[in-house]
Write a structure and sequence with these properties.
Chain A: It comes from Camelina sativa (False flax). The structure holds two protein chains of two kinds. By secondary structure, chain A is α+β, with helices and mostly antiparallel strands. Chain A is built from 20 helices and 20 strands. A seven-stranded mixed barrel of chain B has the order 7-8-14-17-16-15-13. A six-stranded mixed β-sheet of chain B has the order 3-2-1-4-5-6, with helices on both faces. The chains are: A alpha+beta, B alpha/beta.
């Protein structure tokens, strides 16, 4: 392997982390969806008031799975799924059991990663269901047929794939029949119940979790105690909470945020030197990084095959292709000072890569502008150095209690940086962890990274206007009115990313319509229009601007940079249309061309030719 | 002077009290000039020193007085001479009067540039401000300073004072210092002037801004409270990383006789269907593809353009929330600053009112921003107040980008309370830790805070420019060692540590750490931490100085151990490659000299294989094995090859290293297949 010169100049810190976090599978999930297809599932469930919203339970189940698959393929595309119907007329499964139909599409194993084709055909399943699969009750007392038993068997067989150590295995069971063996003779019922429960227990013992998604009739709630509580192994505590949570579960399956889920990985292993002779072991995690739509693969547009990119360095003097590491030059003092790639990486190599404690400061020394890039989360590990966790927790507690952060020197980035280690207490809500306990490593800028903009806006000797008490009071009222209720960081989905996934889905599935994505980042218009809010804003405005209908009167000197934007229509000295017709635009200077462009609010970038073309297109319209 | 140029006068106190820090002053100034030579080579620079024995300035010649102020260089375009000059500042003999010097300097700047001239005029005073100033002929010193300052403001001259206060000697009177500080403050309030007090050579290096960036707004427009209430604001970068300049590629292919050779290198990207094919695909024939499950879905640029998320430029307020709601580590990027449009007094007021009220009530604002029309995405961020301490500076907001829901990775971590109690500190240990956190204090008071980011220079850049300077004189100059000054950011301050020695010792004593003895060889990291086979390493304390047994060559005696130590060095990823290369050489030698000692070579090959799997360098090994195979064939060392099969040395297949292009089945029968034809021949 040779040193790639571009590697040396790349922003190296981002690099390893991205590598670490890109689409590598660690643990994955195997899921079998079991859908009851008995005639009962097809009966309408409409509430009498809402006649137009007739939906069968079968439809609810199928559309829920369809939605879930569309999120799944983006979020965890390495997971493998299978879809099985039971209580069917036709049969299709490896065991050749009656009443179970494993749905699949070509180019795919029965349990496999979801594909566009699977999603597409599953979307249309209701149209063809009657013809291809058919509904038929499969639990027959006389013939001892038990389709539920068979379904569990088929699912369990499918889930034999993959080791249970590295993968989660789950079945989702959709049904509206709370007592599948209710109509049987008592002896048969007991027998069937026993064998079915045994089958379910076997599956659970193999590490497969069975999740039930019961669908209730409007007039009669699904009674979990009749049969299914034993099948899914609920104890009495869980029983009470189970039914109320069902609705939420279905919603959750449908409305998942499209978000690529990454496996938990250690981004950096860090040796933290507390003082000479005492080092502990920490793991660094990238808990916050801008999400990207996933890697781009270039394709040949005619064949849609992936394209290989080859980079070559060519000497402009001889046309020869350069091999190996190429020297670099820096023009300096009328000469070209040459550096080898090796020398440049030597320059950057100033430390051992450890994290070295320098001392502590009160939290208010960490200013809001002391930030460069996303932080790294640190959590101790006793795996290699025993005692690390203890020392870490002790420092962690002290720092929280004394409201201090640690300043340290971190050699693991290029360039090495001063970092602030801010202790974070664990925060939990609703049983979930909102903030894990540990320290966040915040990368601090160096002196030359910080710009003194404030100075630029100071007028020496001239006091800047400051608000009066009344104005402050009005501002305070405004802020109280505009308080965001229950705001939490990252409550907004990234609108561009969600749109991208919607486009991707529409194109992949040949959908005619783009799924509407909502831009959650827009201000809450309704809230803003509440009279009290409007009034508070109005009063603040009044206190600052007075009665002057012109919101702003210029004060002091005119802004010099105005001159640069002299693109008013008045300045247009030429008849551009005439010039364009006669092809004389090229005789104008770039500045003159830009005058036209700015006047018509067109972009002004590019070479002269580009500018002319842009004007021509504009006039052409 | 053009608008984007700068005229700078360095005003340096070289009096006896400054001698000890002058080497650092020289370093800082030289870096400043070096960068000017590269990035702003039309800037103009003058140097004035004061505290010299002799006197040499125009004012002294014209009107007398102004003694002990010497103009080393008049304001001229920066050149190599001045860069050299500044490294050999004279050592003065008298205590200098900085006020005299400021007047001389101002006179120079005014004579050089008329008031209306564009461009920036800047003076930089470096002194300890510990020597008394003379009384003016008339009026008080305060009046005099105010007059000078007002004049400077009128002329548009900026002043930076760096006051070095680490090494005050006995004869510096507190009164004098107090007076001088007062005078410097007067400058600040009457002119664009700021004073920075520095306490160490490190912050001296950091305090002189060696990078001059013309500030550019990235947004000018409305901060919209609601559609009827808008505040005019400008947004700038507050923080932006200064990077090492991108060095050009250099080609040495042209013959030395070619005088017109440009020595440039062009980078070409070819897009091909397969690696072997020569057919190149034109840029317009390519289309972006995105993963959708196992497939890649092409999306044409037109589709992207028409369907993509569209934005309108603007800043919209979403509302206010408690500052404590926004944890500090959620800041995602470098920081912007939102200042009110300076020409709109009402906007200045509005920003100020909100900022002050935010500070008062500990609130922050959440805003949604699109900086440019047609920007690909929106950003949601937090405005925090930046209430100015200076009267003449308008209040503003800092803006930090917040993450979107998709940006958060929700990995659970065990709660500290749930960890086994042997992993948690007891009361005594906690007390020791409390003590350390309290006493290892970098900011005993606001004034004494050390290691301020605002005053800390970037060590890598410092070193690069130093090296550049050396290289410009001699091509094969060696890389200079890391400047001593930078020890202060890379290691604990020895003074601070020794003052707190008992606390550090207590901490060390209370928190014993040891390497986990149970770790198996399989662990990659273990390999790295065991440089050579010492026996008692299980209980060895891990010390910072692991560098002692750094191995940088694969020797004859213990090639395997050397190799393992070297490949596991983590101070640079090159070591792995070096180790592999050297190990290969060693093996070839062993094979070539092979008599009957095949075993050692084999062991080395095994070690190399293991190392290559660990380092995920399958190619290195696979190619080498091929090479070795050919070598053996050439030399008719068939017995050696037999060993390979018996020891089951195989290529590294995909299952062991995903980068490998060897399929698992092929790896195993590599030798069986290849060997047969050879045995026949």
């Amino acid at each position: 392997m040779e040193l790639d010169p571009d590697d040396v100049f790349r922003d190296e810190d981002e690099d390893p982390e991205n590598d670490f976090f890109q689409e590598k599978e660690a643990s994955k999930e195997f899921v079998v969806y079991l859908i009851d297809a008995s005639p009962k599932m097809f009966s309408s469930t409409s509430h009498s008031e809402e006649e137009d919203k007739q939906e069968s339970h079968f439809h609810i189940a199928v559309s829920c799975i369809a939605q879930s698959l569309k999120s799944h393929i983006i979020n965890r595309s390495n997971d493998e799924i299978a879809i099985c119907f039971f209580n069917t007329r036709e049969k299709k499964n490896l065991q050749d059991l009656n009443g179970v139909y494993a749905f699949n599409v070509p180019e795919r194993e029965c349990i496999d990663r979801p594909t566009a084709r699977l999603i597409k055909e599953f979307d249309l399943i209701e149209e063809s269901f009657d013809k291809d699969i058919g509904s038929q009750t499969g639990i027959v007392s006389d013939s001892r047929e038990n389709s539920l038993y068979s379904a569990l068997w088929v699912a369990q067989a499918l889930l034999r794939k993959g080791s249970s150590k590295t993968a989660d295995k789950r079945m989702f069971l959709f049904t509206n029949e709370d007592d599948p063996f209710g109509n049987m003779r008592i002896s048969v019922k007991e027998d069937m119940t026993r064998t079915t429960l045994q089958r379910a227990k076997d599956a659970r013992d193999l590490g497969i979790s069975i999740e039930l998604l019961p669908l209730s009739q409007p007039d009669k709630q699904f009674n979990i105690t009749l049969f299914y509580k034993d099948l899914i192994g609920l104890n009495s505590d869980e029983l009470i909470e189970f039914m109320p949570s069902v609705g939420q579960k279905l919603e959750d399956m449908k409305d998942q945020l499209k978000k690529r889920v990454l496996a938990k990985r250690i981004a950096k292993r860090i040796t933290f030197v507390i003082c000479d002779g005492l080092s502990i072991e920490l793991n660094g995690y990238a808990l916050l990084r801008p999400a990207i739509p996933g890697s781009i693969t270039w394709l040949d547009s005619t064949t849609n095959l992936p394209v290989k990119v080859e980079r070559s360095y060519i000497c402009t003097d001889t046309g020869a292709i350069m091999q190996g590491p190429i020297q670099r030059i820096q023009p300096y003092k009328n000469q070209n000072v040459m550096f080898t790639v090796e020398e440049l990486s030597q320059v950057k190599r100033i430390s051992t890569g450890h994290l070295r404690l320098l001392g502590f400061k009160p939290l208010n020394c960490l200013k809001d502008y002391h930030n460069l890039k996303p932080s790294t989360f640190l959590y101790p590990s006793d795996k290699e150095v025993i005692g690390s966790t203890r020392a870490f927790i002790a420092l962690h507690r002290s720092m929280i209690q004394l409201q201090r952060f640690a300043v340290a020197f971190y050699g693991g980035t290029t360039p090495p940086r001063l970092v602030a280690l801010v202790a974070q207490e664990e925060i939990e809500s609703d049983g979930g962890q909102v903030e894990p306990p540990g320290m966040n490593m915040i990368y601090l800028p160096y002196a030359n990274d910080i710009r003194d903009v404030e100075e630029l806006h100071s007028k020496p000797g001239v006091a800047a206007p400051r608000p009066s008490d009344d104005q402050l009071k009005k501002a305070s009222a405004l802020m109280r009115r505009l308080e965001l209720k229950d705001f939490s960081v990252c409550q907004f989905a990234n609108p561009a990313l969600q749109r991208h996934y919607a486009i991707l889905q529409a194109i992949a599935l040949d959908e005619n319509e783009l799924r509407e994505t909502r831009d959650e980042t827009l201000p809450d218009e309704e809230g803003m229009n509440r009279p009290a809010v409007v009034k508070a804003i109005e009063q603040f405005k009044q206190s600052i601007y007075g009665d002057d209908p012109d919101e702003e009167s210029d004060s002091g000197a005119k802004d010099k940079s105005r001159k640069r934007k002299a693109g008013n229509a008045d300045d247009v000295k030429y008849d551009y249309i005439e010039l364009a017709k006669t092809g004389k635009l090229k005789d104008l200077t770039v500045v003159e061309l830009k005058t036209y462009l700015t006047a018509n609010s067109l972009p002004v970038g590019g070479k002269k030719e580009v500018l002319i073309n842009r004007i021509l297109t504009h006039i052409g319209k | 002077m053009a608008r984007n140029r700068e005229g700078l006068v360095l005003l340096i106190d070289v009096g006896p009290a400054m001698h000890s820090v002058l080497p650092d002053v020289e370093k800082a100034c030289s870096l400043l000039l070096q960068k000017k030579l590269i990035y702003n080579k039309y800037d103009e620079v003058g140097i004035v020193v004061f505290g010299t024995e002799e006197t040499g300035n125009e004012l002294a010649r014209e009107i007398g007085g102004y003694e002990h102020v010497t103009v080393l260089r008049n304001i001229r375009v920066v050149d190599e001479v001045v860069a050299e000059h500044v490294k050999q500042l004279p050592r003065g003999t008298v205590a200098g009067d900085f006020l005299d010097a400021v007047i001389v300097e101002m006179d120079m700047l005014i004579k050089m540039y008329s008031a209306g001239q564009k461009g920036k005029k800047r003076m930089c005073l470096i002194t300890n401000a510990a020597c008394p100033t003379k009384d003016p002929f008339e009026g008080t010193k305060d009046d005099q300073v105010s007059t000078i300052a007002t004049k400077m403001a009128a002329e548009g001259i900026k002043m930076e004072s760096i006051v070095m206060r680490s090494n005050l000697i006995g004869d510096a009177h507190e009164k004098v210092i107090e007076e001088n500080d007062h005078l410097l403050n007067l400058f600040s309030s009457n002119a664009i002037a700021k004073t920075v007090n520095v306490e160490s050579p490190l912050s001296l290096l950091g305090s002189l801004k060696t990078r001059r960036v013309a500030p550019v707004t990235l947004f000018r427009g409305d901060l919209e409270i609601n559609p009827t209430m808008k505040i005019k604001v400008w947004v700038y970068k507050k923080v932006a990383e200064e990077r090492l300049s991108t060095l050009q590629l250099y080609s040495d292919k042209a013959p030395p006789t070619d005088k017109f050779a440009k020595h440039e290198v062009k980078i070409d990207y070819d897009y091909k269907v397969t690696a072997e094919s020569t057919q190149v695909i034109a840029p317009e024939e390519r289309v972006k593809g995105f993963r959708y499950g196992p497939q890649v879905i092409p999306i044409s640029p037109d589709e992207i353009e028409t369907l993509k998320f569209k934005t309108d430029k603007g800043m919209k307020l979403l509302g206010f929330t408690e500052a404590s709601n926004i944890l500090r580590h959620y800041y995602m990027k470098d920081v912007n600053i939102v200042v009110p449009d300076p020409s709109k007094e009402k906007s200045v007021l509005a920003v100020s009112a909100i900022a002050r009220e935010m500070k008062e009530t500990n609130k922050v604002a959440i805003v949604r921003c699109v900086w440019r029309n047609g920007q690909d995405n929106v950003v949601v961020g937090v405005l925090t107040p930046n209430v100015s301490e200076r009267e003449d500076t308008p209040d503003s907001f800092y803006f930090n980008v917040l993450p979107f829901a998709e940006d958060v990775r929700e990995f659970p971590f065990p709660s500290f309370n749930k960890l086994p109690s042997s992993w948690k500190p007891d009361e005594q240990q906690q007390a020791v830790a409390d003590n350390l956190v309290k006493m290892l204090d970098l900011a005993p008071s606001a004034k004494e805070e050390v290691l301020l980011p605002d005053l800390t220079p970037n060590p890598v850049l410092q070193r690069f420019y130093e090296y550049l300077e050396l290289k410009s004189k001699s091509t094969d100059a060696a890389l200079p060692p890391m400047d001593e000054t930078f020890k202060r950011i890379m290691e604990q301050d020895p003074e601070l540590s020794s003052n707190n020695k008992s606390i550090m010792d207590a901490f060390r004593g209370s928190f014993e750490v040891k390497e986990n003895p149970k770790l198996k060889k399989a662990s990659k990291r273990l390999l790295r931490d065991k440089p050579s086979g010492s026996d008692d390493e299980d209980n060895r304390m891990i010390t910072y100085d692991a560098n002692k047994h750094k191995i940088d060559i694969v020797g004859d005696a213990n090639p395997i151990q050397d190799f393992e130590a070297m490949i596991s060095r983590r101070d640079n990823h090159d070591w792995a490659i070096k180790a592999i290369t050297q190990m290969k050489k060693r093996i070839v030698k062993l094979v070539e000299n092979c008599t009957d000692e095949g075993d050692k070579a084999l062991e080395c090959v095994l070690a190399l294989r293991k190392g290559c799997v660990l380092e995920q360098e399958p190619k290195q090994f696979n190619e080498f094995l091929n090479h070795l195979f050919e070598l053996c064939q050439e030399r008719k060392l068939s017995h050696f090859l037999k060993h390979f099969t018996s020891k089951k040395i195989t290529l590294i297949p995909k299952s062991e290293a995903p980068d490998s292009d060897v399929v698992d089945e092929n790896a195993d029968d590599y030798f069986t297949v290849k060997q047969e034809p050879m045995l026949e021949s």
